[in-house]
From TrEMBL:
This is Signal recognition particle protein. Its main location: membrane. GO terms for cellular component: plasma membrane; signal recognition particle. The gene is ffh. The chain holds residues 1 to 297 of 501 of the full protein. The keyword Ribonucleoprotein applies. Involved in targeting and insertion of nascent membrane proteins into the cytoplasmic membrane. Binds to the hydrophobic signal sequence of the ribosome-nascent chain (RNC) as it emerges from the ribosomes. The SRP-RNC complex is then targeted to the cytoplasmic membrane where it interacts with the SRP receptor FtsY. Interaction with FtsY leads to the transfer of the RNC complex to the Sec translocase for insertion into the membrane, the hydrolysis of GTP by both Ffh and FtsY, and the dissociation of the SRP-FtsY complex into the individual components. It is found in: Cell inner membrane; Cytoplasm.
Amino acid sequence: MFENLSERLSGVFDRLTKQGSLSEEDVKTALREVRVALLEADVSLPVARDFIKTVESRATGQAVTKSVTPGQQVVKIVHDALVETLRGEGDPGALKIDNPPAPILMVGLQGSGKTTTTAKLAKRLKDREGKRVLMASLDTNRPAAMEQLAILGKQIGVDTLPIVKGEDPVQIAKRAKTQAALGGYDVYMLDTAGRLHIDAELIAQAAAVRDVANPRETLLVVDGLTGQDAVNVATEFDDKIGVTGVVLTRMDGDGRGGAALSMRAITGKPIRFVGLGEKMDALETFEPDRIAGRILG
Ligand code: GDP
């Protein structure tokens, strides 16, 4: 569907004068193509613009190595700059879950993949780190969502907090906390209610739960295919609730992952995991290198 950036750039450089180093004009011309590639990958315009500026100053005047074409060289400079922007501090997969029972708060809009991701992450913690995990659904508006988490729990062999009708989310969070302590769990995960849009009630509820649980990690789950919307959602949740990391779902889809770059550049929050399918093991630690490659096509 997309023309490869390296191919596009070789075309551009074929038309330019051959020199020993990348001239300002070469770089400018090449970066026009890069900008188009970024926008096609759904990177937001201001982020693309800033990014191009950084790369421009870095690339201009660089000596062209014999072993690569100028086009390949620009692609490498762009790739490295993308990885730098995308990379957060430390290991994205290392969650702060010492001091058991460690609470993890899962937030996000309805349909983002929050419940699925909660279960995927619980499975990962169990299988890879040998953690005992308790999951609780706080979505009292949607009994089907609570049921869904219980079903997933059975499937992956992770306990879920029994459903008690009539409790509100804060009561459920308190019960999860008590149960996690009494039951000797290492981690308890709170799958908060989602809505189709962010509204005051959703935020107030998530904040009340946060205050009760005092989470070590608050992970925001966003649909990686929603581009700029995903970034707006992240900004809002971070302002109102405070998030410690982002999980981008549906990265197995057709999207080119530009939301990842905008997300990092605008919110500054680290991307911790990516969802790569509906199956319970389709969750991977975020790898900047892979997303950079994908954004460049
Ligand atoms: P929630 O409303 O945010 O809790 O969303 P769900 O966890 O119920 O997920 C909604 C749908 O998206 C389900 O059909 C999931 O199987 C699917 N889903 C979740 N994560 C991914 C992913 O990474 N890739 C794909 N392809 N589908 C996903």
